[in-house]
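#structure-requests
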Amino acid sequence: MNTQIEHLRKVIEPLRQEILNHPVYPLIQSPEDLSVFMQYHIYAVWDFMSLLKTLQNNLTCTSVPWFVVGNAQTRYLINEIVAGEESDLNSQGERMSHFELYLNAMKQSGADTAAMESFIAELQNSGDFDRAFSVSGTPQAAQDFVRYTFEVIGSKKSHVQSAVFTFGREDLIPGMFMSLIADIDLNFPDSISEFKYYLERHIEVDGDHHSHLALEMTEQLCGDDAAFWQEAEAAVVRGLQMRKALWDGVYEALVTQRVEV
C-alpha cells in the first residue's frame, strides 16, 4: 500500500473509531428515534451527491463542446462511482439515486421529509444556503456538516475533495452502517425494509467496490506531492470531526426527546 495512504490511515484511525463506536447507534431504539436520526442524516446523503458531482465536473468534461480532461483512468474511476450513486437499483429493481432511495426509506418508516424537501426547494429557488437552512429549520449540526462539505467543494482542489470523499465518506460508510444496522436488527420490524436495504446496499457497494475506486482516485490525484497529501490529511481530519459532531447532534436530540417524553 502507498506509504502516504498508510500514514493517513494511522492519523485518522482514532477519529474513525470514535465514529464507528459512537453512542448514538444503540440509542436508536424506536421508530421515533430512527426518524430523528434520518432527519439529520438525510443532509449528509444529499451533500455527498454534491461532492461527488463536483469531482465529476472537475475530473471529466461535463460541458459542450467536449474536450479531453485529465487522464482516462481517473475519468473512469469517478464516472463508475457516479453511475452507481446516481442511478442504482432500489429493492424493486428500479433505477434511482441513493438520495431518492433514502427519501423513500424515510417515507416508509414515517420520518418527516418536509424539512429536506423545503430546503431543496428554497435552495433551487434562491441559491442561498442561509435562507434555505432557515426556511427548512435544518438542525444546527446538519447545517455545520453541509457547510464544511461546501467549503471543501469551494476549495477547487480536486485532491482535497477526493480525499474527503474517500476517507470521510466511501471508506468510512461500510463500517459506520454495519454499526448502525446491528442495532436496528435488534429493535425494528420489517416496516423499515427500505432503510435496511439502503444500508445494506451501501455496505455492499461501498465496501466491495466504490471505496477501492475512490482510494485509487485519491492516490492518483495526490501523487508524490507532499503538500497535496498534507492538505488532504488536514481536510480529512476536519471532515471526520464534522461527522462526529453530526452524530453528537443526533445523540443530543435523542436524549432531549427522551427527557421531554
